[in-house]
Amino acid sequence: MKTLKVLKYIGFGILGTGFLFLVIWGVMALWNCLIPDIFNGPELTYWQTFGLFFLSKILLTGIAPQGGHDKRTKKEWRSKFREKFGPYRSDEETEPVAPEA
User: Fold this and answer.
1) Helices 46-61 and 2-39: crossing angle, nearest 10°?
2) Domains of the chain: which residue ranges?
3) CA atoms 9, 11, 14, 18: torsion sign
4) What phi and psi values does residue 80 have, to the nearest 5 degrees?
5) Residue 82, C-beta contacts closer than 8 angstroms, at least 6 positions apart
6) Whole-angstrom distance, CA of residue 45 vs CA of residue 49
7) What is the DSSP string of 1-52?
8) 6-54: per-residue pLDDT in tens?
9) DSSP H or E run through 60
10) Distance of alpha carbon 40 from alpha carbon 27, whole angstroms
């Protein structure tokens, strides 16, 4: 049973690596088909595309692990907000205001 789990993780690792290589190859193919013709830009090699893909991942999503948002910090922020602006009351904001004639 334990061997089956290990083999499953190895299989998912191989599939994930293959998927990553396929995505990078797709980005390279799109870049090399579009950018040189449209903007007179350079054609990229596979490793240049890998670097560009990795850099965009860092810039767009960061390098922190996902799902690790600190709930305590969110509660602290919420309590400071309520101290400053008061509690949120949705019933006051949703009532229509009659125009004065």
Assistant:
1) 100
2) 1-62
3) negative
4) -65, -40
5) 88
6) 6
7) -HHHHHHHHHHHHHHHHHHHHHHHHHHHHHHHHHHHHHH--PPP-HHHHHHH
8) 999 999 999 999 999 999 999 999 999 999 999 999 999 999 999 999 9
9) helix 46-61
10) 17
Q: Which burial class, exposed, middle or buried, applies to 49 when counting CB atoms under 10 A from its CB (0-12, 13-18, 19+)?
A: buried
Query: 27: burial class by Cβ within 10 Å (0-12, 13-18, 19+)?
Result: middle
Residue type (1 letter), 48: Q
Helix (H, G, I), strand (E, B) or coil at 86: coil
Distance CA 32, CA 27 (A): 9
Calculate the CA 11 to chain-centre distance.
25
pLDDT tens figures, 88-99: 665 555 555 566
In Å, how far from its chain's centre is CA 14?
A: 23
In single-letter form, the type of residue at position 22 comes to L
d(CA 27, CA 20): 11
Counted residue by residue, the chain has a size of 101
